[in-house]
Amino acid sequence: MAGWLLKAWSKPAVRKGMIAAGAAFLVYTLFGFFALPPILKSVLSRNLSETLHRRVELREIRVNPLALSISVRGFTILERDAPGTWVSVEEIFANLQIASVIRGGAVLSEVRLSRPYVNIVRHPDGSYNFTDLMDDSKKRQKDRSSPVKYSFNNIQVIDGSIDFDDRPKNTNHEIRGIQVGIPFLSNLRYHVDRYVQPSFSAVVNGKQISIQGKTKPFSESMETTFDLNISDLDIPHYLEYVPVQRDYEIPSAFLDVKAVLSFRQYKDKPPTLSAEGDVVLREVRVSGKDKSPMVHLPMVKAAISPSDLIARDFHLASLEVRDPEIDASIDINRKLNLLSLLPEKQKDNNVEKKGEEVLPKEEPGAKEPKFTVDSIRLTGGKVRFSDASLGSPFKTALGELRVDVDNVSTETGKKADALVSFSTEAGNVELKGNL
Q1: How far is the C-alpha of 96 from the C-alpha of 71, rounded, in Å?
Q2: 167 close to 121: Cβ distance less than 8 angstroms
């Protein structure tokens, strides 16, 4: 080996190439260790401050060009229009993969946040101390031609804290000791050699909460399962903390969940996340801002068959709806009240511009979600309709509404068998056919 090196070194072209490679490697190493950190510190502080409209401080940045890792220490974002800290992290560690170049997106084999802290404030008008950032994010998404590609693996949150100042209710909430393990968050198909075990634990207002997955360490897939059990979750109590404006009210809704989440991580296949179990919604009431009734769902039960959440393949064994009541009305301005239930984006798509065809933007190569429902059963339904846009008010109602649909699927060419029956003032109506 030594003789071969000496022989190669004796050739001028090889000798010059080896010297050049060594010099390039030395420059790359010295630049990464010593020059890049202060440059990143200056650029990140300035750009993040401008983007977030808040002062951003970084105490120290360390870069290891050989391991392709970066450590940001003492990361702090101050409040915009108030004293104090909004977000801080003692250390943000990330390990970049060479695959980022090939995949055309950021691929991180590890992301670790040590002692992160977030201060959330809800103002009397219902807005939050980060509402402006959400508005900016929506604008950037509209201007962006394609989504950013990424694969973040082995995400860990260590000893996190959250303070929530609910000023309308004059209440403070504290979450301490947050420990999180997330195997991956990705829109790229990429596999790393190992994954952290999914987990979550925290102390919420003095109460310990812990969710730990069960792993089969000797199976080829390293399958991890979660048993998810939720009973009598008061949805409206938590909806008021969601920073999204709605044109309707949900005064009542309860959620029961009994399901199993399974995470599999094959060596030669992309990770999968599947779910199966039962989800029940009870006493869901939706009303307008003027308290007028819109929807009442006494019971909705979905039986989930094994569904691949990552592949967006959703399968329901059954969907059961009992005794629903719908109050549809058109006001004097010819506006249907039920349209307020649609998301803002969907509302925009429903408005057609004259002479233009409105088409949703799709990511090139993106796989469409697949929905399959073996059976849908709706019984005892009532629909009340009123129209105030005419010269004289018009009212009518449908009773004993029944809907039976089998083998529903979004796959092209699939047809479902359907039966719809209801009673009107003129008599009973029954319709059968294929969808």
Answers
A1: 11
A2: yes
CB 95 within 8 A of CB 110: yes
Spell out the per-residue pLDDT of the chain, length 435, in tens.
Answer: 556 656 665 677 767 777 888 889 899 899 999 999 999 999 999 999 999 999 999 999 999 999 999 999 999 999 998 899 999 999 999 999 887 777 778 889 999 999 999 999 999 988 899 999 988 887 777 666 667 788 898 999 999 999 999 999 898 999 999 999 988 887 776 767 677 878 889 998 888 888 877 776 556 666 788 888 888 889 998 887 877 778 899 999 999 999 998 888 776 777 788 999 999 999 999 999 999 999 999 999 999 999 998 888 999 999 999 999 999 999 988 899 999 998 765 555 554 444 444 444 444 445 688 999 999 999 999 999 999 888 788 899 999 999 999 999 988 888 899 999 999 988 899 999 887
Q: What are the backbone dihedrals phi and psi of residue 102, each rounded to the nearest 5 degrees, phi first?
A: -75, -40
Residue 34 DSSP symbol: I
Q: How far apart are CA 229 and CA 239, in angstroms?
A: 20
**Could you tell me if 422 and 401 are in contact, meaning their C-beta atoms sit under 8 angstroms apart?**
yes
What is the Cβ-side half-sphere exposure of residue 28, based on CA atoms within 13 angstroms?
A: 10
- Going from the C-alpha of 293 to that of each of 119, 364, 409, the distances in angstroms are 37, 42, 32
271 by Cβ neighbours in 10 Å (0-12 / 13-18 / 19+) ranks as buried
Q: Reduced to 3 states, what is the DSSP secondary structure of residue 331? A: coil
Other C-beta atoms closer than 10 Å to the C-beta of 23 total: 10
Q: Looking at this protein, which amino acid is placed at residue 161? A: S
Residue 220, class by beta-carbon neighbours within 10 Å (0-12 exposed, 13-18 middle, 19+ buried)? exposed
Q: In sequence order, which ranges of 276-353 are alpha helices (DSSP H)?
A: 344-350
Query: Half-sphere exposure of residue 410, counting CA atoms within 13 Å on the CB side?
Result: 11
Please tell me the pTM assigned to this model.
0.69
What are the structure tokens assigned to 140, written together?
A: 């950037």
Residue among 104, 188, 145, 136 at smallest CA distance from 361: 145
Contact yes or no for 319/302 (Cβ under 8 A): yes
